[in-house]
Amino acid sequence: MDNKKQPKFIAFSSQKGGVGKSTFTTLIASLLHYRLGYNVAVFDCDFPQHSLVQMRARDISGIMDNEVYKKIAHKQFMSINKKAYPVLQHRADGVLEAVEQFLASSPIMIDVIFFDLPGTVNSAGILKTLAGMHHIFTPITADRVVMESTLIFTQVLNDVIRKQGNTNIKTINLFWNQVDGREKSGLYSIYDELIKSLGIHLMNTRITDSKRFRKEGEADMKTVFRSTLLPADERLMKSCRLDLFMEEFLRTVKL
After folding, report:
1. Is 56 helix (H, G, I), strand (E, B) or coil?
2. Which residues pair with 44 in a beta bridge?
3. Distance (Å, rounded) from C-alpha 73 to C-alpha 80?
4. Which of 18, 249, 9, 19 is nearest to 130 (CA)?
5. Residue 176 belongs to what H/E stretch?
6. Residue 116 phi/psi, 5° resolution?
């Protein structure tokens, strides 16, 4: 494939569940596709739950059942003049080959493909798939179990994959998620120093804790946050620093 036309392969990946990888995949994919003008595709490889495939089905139903969302969606799709990005289900094993077939048959040029991957490197084909990513982003929380699991996972990527040389990985990036403003800042400083000492890149932006990350379009809400069909409301993004994260993300992947 022509390198100039090669889309960027990006994964929000973690060894630990519940830290926000599927949520960030959705948030960033929707912002890129619906607000920033890029063409995006998502491959949901998180067997067996395939939460993004399920989220797309819920989003379609939620918009059809809510007049406010229906009007927002109609206005958006008329304005951007393109369809919703595809959310495709696949196993982690063999997904890179499936992506090549998808790209060869796609009627439009795809700029970014996101991969929602299983939360364990023991899953079939996961290491090969991770080695095929260009950029990996890993959310972390100030929890000892999460930190231990994440640092082991990241060192596996660094030592086993990158140092063997047979990889497309350009960056591996940790970032703080669910940061509680009441938490002692000293705790984060200790973890920051530990991460730095291991030679692992930590993003500057810290995402503050927000109930929005655990909600999807209740019927009485007038704004959108996490959706596969609409981008996050700009005011809600600012309230949890997602706007700053997005700027740093774009610089990192060079979009």
Report:
1. helix
2. 89, 116
3. 11
4. 9
5. strand 171-176
6. -100, 110
- The whole-number pLDDT of residue 162 equals 62
Residue of 116, 133, 43, 125 lying closest to 92 (CA atoms): 125
**Contact predicate 70/140, CB 8 Å:** no
In contact, 202 and 174? CB cutoff 8 Å: yes
Q: Are the C-beta atoms of 110 and 38 separated by less than 8 Å? A: no
For residue range 168-186, what is the model confidence (pLDDT) as tens digits? 899 999 999 988 766 666 7
Residue 105: give its domain's CATH number: 3.40.50.300
Q: Which two tokens stand for residue 5?
A: 């036309």
User: Predicted confidence band at 152 (pLDDT cuts at 50, 70, 90)?
Assistant: confident
Query: Which CA distances in Å does 241 have to 187, 209, 210?
Result: 20, 10, 10
The DSSP result for 20-45, as a single string, is SHHHHHHHHHHIIIIIS---EEEEE-
Nearest to 52 by CA among 252, 255, 190, 229: 229
Range of the domain at 100: 3-253
Domain count, the chain: 1
